[in-house]
Amino acid sequence: MAKPRIFISSTYYDLKHIRASLDNFIEALGFESILSEKGDIAYSPDQPLDHSCYREVSNVDIFVLIIGGRYGSEASSEEKKPSHDFFERYESITKKEYEEAVRNDIPSYILIETNVYAEFRTYLKNKAKKDINYAHVDSVNIFNFIEEIVAKKRNNPIKSFDKFSEIEYWLKEQWAGLFKDLLQRLSNQSQLTSLSSKVEELGEINNTLKTYLESLMTTLNPDTSNELIERESRRLEQKYILQLLQKNALSEFILRNFDMTEDHLIKIIKQITSFDEFIDELKNCVPNPEDNIDFESIVQQKSSAIQDLNQLRGILNLKLV
User: Fold this and answer.
1) What are phi and psi of 5, to 5 degrees?
2) Quick one: which of 296, 259, 262, 260 has its CA closest to 279?
3) CA dihedral in degrees (266, 272, 277, 280; nearest 10)?
4) DSSP 37-92
5) Angle between the 140-151 and 93-103 helix axes, to the nearest 10 degrees?
């Protein structure tokens, strides 16, 4: 049976105990944890090692990022150095893994050590100062990384932690909520499918009743029944056409900006034979040339306007322009 695959991303040595506990927690839930130290990642011999990590991230279901005091090794795209200055900017493998998860819109959960998160708030108030010694991080890039995460509009839930029990409780709550949301969506989809089926069934019943009534009227009152049936059919058809007109972007724009009824618009659509002729007819409907009617917005989007116009002509069983 397929299991949810969860990628654990972080630096290793400073967070190996948290990673091990998280691995046990995930496996106990019946999920599959993906950690580099377990050999879960298949490395390609013709690519840098970190590229295989990014590829693996793109194939998981959930991404868990742990941020501690170490920024980590530089990505293969960066210049290799024995060490980096505290304020030197570079991209780490962990950061690139997170960016890959974001790019693939994978549900992500961010865990940050409490001391690091507290120093991050201090950093925000002292960005321009380079004489501050931060006790809990080895690179300013950690703060820049957190700042990027916080700035995202969605898919960036953050939990600060001191001990693993806090992580365990939070992830249980988050994943239970995710499962609940999934069940709710499935239920809503099932209800929509059922509703669609019932609407279709009602449509068939309506057609059957229409046939019965027309047959009954023809039998009881043959002199006037045909005229009545034809008149009602025209009325229903006209109502259907008006409903379609209201859903068309071009007709909605015209009816909103011009002093024009649906019947008048239909008359114009039936008369014209080209898009330019249609624009001219609209201009003729403006009694005062100084009225602020935005014809340019129609002309500038000519291709989509022609498409909408042809949709309207199709509704009226007319040839396309």
Assistant:
1) -100, 125
2) 296
3) -40
4) GGT-SPPPTTS-HHHHHHHHHTT-SEEEEEE-S---PBPTTSPP-S---TT----B
5) 10
Burial of 76 (0-12, 13-18, 19+ CB in 10 A): middle
Q: Which uninterrupted H or E stretch holds 138?
A: none
Cβ-based neighbours of 138, under 8 Å, separated by 6 or more: 69, 70, 71, 86
Question: CB neighbours of 65 closer than 8 A, spacing ≥ 6?
Answer: 9, 10, 94, 97, 98, 101, 108, 109, 110, 111
The residue ranges of every structural domain in the chain are 5-162, 224-321
pLDDT in tens, 73-97: 888 888 777 667 787 888 999 999 9
The verdict on domain 5-162 having CATH code 3.40.50 is yes
Q: How many residues does the chain have?
A: 321
Token pair of 204, please?
């068939």
Using alpha carbons, list the distances in angstroms from residue 211 to 200, 218, 228, 235, 270: 17, 11, 14, 17, 31
Q: What is the pLDDT of residues 297-312, one digit of tens each?
A: 665 666 788 888 888 8
Could you tell me if 241 and 316 are in contact, meaning their C-beta atoms sit under 8 angstroms apart?
A: yes
What pTM value is reported for the model?
Answer: 0.62
Element (H, E) at 228: helix 222-247
| 97 within 8 A of 9, measured Cβ to Cβ | yes
Report the distance separating Cα 194 and Cα 277, nearest Å: 46
Residue 224 tokens, joined = 């006037």
SS3 104: coil
